[in-house]
Amino acid sequence: MIRVLLCDDHALIRRGVRDTLVDAGDIEVVGEVGDYGGLREWQRGGQAVDVLLLDINLPGRSGLDVLHVLKEQGGGPRCLVVSMYPEEQYAIRCLRAGAFGYVNKGGDPQELVTAVRMVAQGRKYVTPQIAQMLVENLSTPEPEQAHQKLSDRELQTLVLIASGRRLSDIAEELLLSPKTVSVYRARVLEKLGLSNNSELTVYAIRQGLVDG
């Protein structure tokens, strides 16, 4: 039996994922947490899991932050990122941070089951779209886009601002001070050569980081 832990801040999403996995017959969801704090509590309990299903957009530490922490700690569960963000936005970044796979929440439920089984075996899971991206990058490397040079937190700030969120809302969601979020915003504008939030939003839409 494959033992799975869910880490997502939306209870309804966790319920849907749980139902999908339990119906597979060979997968057991042994726990659910809503953020990194909950994940740490679970780890202290010492209950082992085979696969951690991890969302990117978590309160406080993002899923990308969690991937980096787990990679540094070593010996943790294999992570499968299940996110609403399209593959081209975060998949490669997550794989580089230590994820064993990346699945979009809007995809086929059977794809999630297949991904969990592969990751539990210690194998990487990528969708055909991600595989194509990797092949194209190997055969004809493209110049690095400006936003690919952003840190994980800077990219997260960029996406949230471009989605219309106020700095105070972003600070509350990420458990940061408004001043810290303003610093991230300033770094993003500088690295992208932009002047204001309007230009930042246009950039994000053109690059497919948010919906137009």
TrEMBL record:
<dbReference type="InterPro" id="IPR000792">
    <property type="entry name" value="Tscrpt_reg_LuxR_C"/>
</dbReference>
<dbReference type="Pfam" id="PF00072">
    <property type="entry name" value="Response_reg"/>
</dbReference>
<dbReference type="GO" id="GO:0003677">
    <property type="term" value="F:DNA binding"/>
</dbReference>
<dbReference type="InterPro" id="IPR039420">
    <property type="entry name" value="WalR-like"/>
</dbReference>
<keyword id="KW-0805">Transcription regulation</keyword>
<dbReference type="GO" id="GO:0006355">
    <property type="term" value="P:regulation of DNA-templated transcription"/>
</dbReference>
<dbReference type="InterPro" id="IPR001789">
    <property type="entry name" value="Sig_transdc_resp-reg_receiver"/>
</dbReference>
<dbReference type="InterPro" id="IPR011006">
    <property type="entry name" value="CheY-like_superfamily"/>
</dbReference>
<keyword id="KW-0238">DNA-binding</keyword>
<dbReference type="InterPro" id="IPR058245">
    <property type="entry name" value="NreC/VraR/RcsB-like_REC"/>
</dbReference>
<feature type="modified residue" description="4-aspartylphosphate">
    <location>
        <position position="55"/>
    </location>
</feature>
<dbReference type="GO" id="GO:0000160">
    <property type="term" value="P:phosphorelay signal transduction system"/>
</dbReference>
<dbReference type="Pfam" id="PF00196">
    <property type="entry name" value="GerE"/>
</dbReference>
<keyword id="KW-0597">Phosphoprotein</keyword>
<dbReference type="InterPro" id="IPR016032">
    <property type="entry name" value="Sig_transdc_resp-reg_C-effctor"/>
</dbReference>
<feature type="domain" description="Response regulatory">
    <location>
        <begin position="3"/>
        <end position="120"/>
    </location>
</feature>
<feature type="domain" description="HTH luxR-type">
    <location>
        <begin position="143"/>
        <end position="208"/>
    </location>
</feature>
<keyword id="KW-0804">Transcription</keyword>
<protein>
    <submittedName>
        <fullName>DNA-binding NarL/FixJ family response regulator</fullName>
    </submittedName>
</protein>
